[in-house]
């Protein structure tokens, strides 16, 4: 038998997300279009209905408690799914053909999915296509928050609540060394110029290098593969990139660009989201192209 469910309002959940994502309560209130006092009252009512204390005092500020994280995760999912439903309803009422807000990692945008995106834009002038190119973790955060409809990214190391993924393609990652340096045994590799700490690919690369006995001393970081490649050419260190991003037009950044490991790229969507025909069509084109 189902227990008593708290009578939560979507507005209250929206307040909670706004407070979590804004630097101050005043900014959060402005984001959701209410006064700070109305925001405070709404969150106090949310605490009462959930039955868990969500905030704690820190000087004059009120901070989210760790116990509030499950409530915040639930709030993000509910607000995002409700926004999906509202956008779908608006399109039906106004006879719009649709819009797609797509997130991509750089190599997906410029290499793997480029032709599919071009053909979609040519074939579907009635669909508004908005692209966001960013690292995988940031894209998945935006997907959870409802700012994106779908994402093509590196498979996350652990499942993300509220997100479903499906395999898209497997991509090889290659070791590139500065000009003039040979690809000897792994113990002689490095120092490294890599994606920033916390990126999905950085975690894969570091774990694999250590399993081979290579030392992982990081000399520099960048989210941009082109910058990493140029730092290698300047002799600042070694890197690991997809082959298409590690090579340059007048030669290789390293002899051969030796294959190191594979990474899985996935398509990600919010679980339980209202089906959008335009998004479904674009993702099906991606599936057929890989």
TrEMBL record:
**Which Pfam families does the record match to this protein?**
HTH_1, LysR_substrate
- Molecular-function annotations in GO: DNA binding; DNA-binding transcription factor activity
**Domain HTH lysR-type as annotated: residue spans:** 8-65
Q: Which GO terms describe its cellular component?
A: cytosol
Q: Which CDD domains match?
A: PBP2_LTTR_substrate
Q: Which UniProt keywords apply?
A: DNA-binding, Transcription, Transcription regulation
Where are the coiled-coil regions?
none
Q: Mind telling me which InterPro entries this protein's record contains?
A: HTH-type_LysR_regulators, LysR_HTH_N, LysR_subst-bd, WH-like_DNA-bd_sf, WH_DNA-bd_sf
Give the UniProt family note.
Belongs to the LysR transcriptional regulatory family.
Output the PANTHER family linked to this UniProt entry: HTH-TYPE TRANSCRIPTIONAL REGULATOR YBHD
Specify the protein name.
Putative LysR family transcriptional regulator
Source organism per UniProt: Ilumatobacter coccineus (strain NBRC 103263 / KCTC 29153 / YM16-304)
């Amino acid at each position: 038998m189902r227990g008593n469910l708290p009578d939560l309002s979507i507005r209250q959940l929206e307040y909670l997300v706004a407070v979590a994502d804004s630097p101050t309560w005043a900014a959060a209130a402005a984001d959701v279009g209410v006064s700070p006092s109305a925001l405070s009252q709404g969150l106090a009512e949310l605490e009462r209905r959930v039955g868990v204390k969500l905030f704690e005092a820190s000087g004059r500020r009120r901070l989210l408690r760790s116990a509030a994280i499950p409530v915040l995760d639930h709030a993000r999912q509910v607000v995002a799914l409700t926004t999906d439903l509202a956008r779908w309803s608006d399109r039906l009422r106004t006879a719009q053909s649709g819009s797609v807000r797509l997130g991509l990692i750089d190599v997906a945008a410029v290499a793997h999915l480029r032709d599919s995106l071009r053909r979609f834009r040519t074939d579907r002038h009635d669909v508004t296509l908005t692209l966001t190119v960013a690292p995988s973790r940031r894209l998945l955060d935006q997907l959870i928050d409802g700012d994106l409809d779908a994402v093509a990214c590196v498979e996350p190391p652990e499942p993300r609540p509220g997100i479903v993924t499906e395999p898209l393609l497997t991509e090889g990652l290659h070791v590139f060394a500065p000009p003039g340096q040979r690809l000897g045994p792994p113990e002689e590799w490095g120092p490294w110029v890599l994606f920033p700490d916390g990126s999905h690919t950085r975690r894969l690369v570091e774990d694999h290098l250590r399993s081979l006995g290579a030392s992982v001393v990081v000399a520099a970081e960048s989210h941009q593969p082109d910058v990493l490649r140029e730092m290698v050419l300047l002799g600042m260190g070694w890197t690991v990139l997809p082959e298409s991003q590690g090579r340059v037009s007048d030669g290789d950044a390293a002899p051969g660009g030796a294959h190191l490991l594979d990474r899985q790229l996935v398509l990600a969507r919010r679980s339980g989201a209202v089906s959008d025909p335009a998004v479904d069509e674009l993702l099906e084109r991606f599936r057929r192209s890989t």
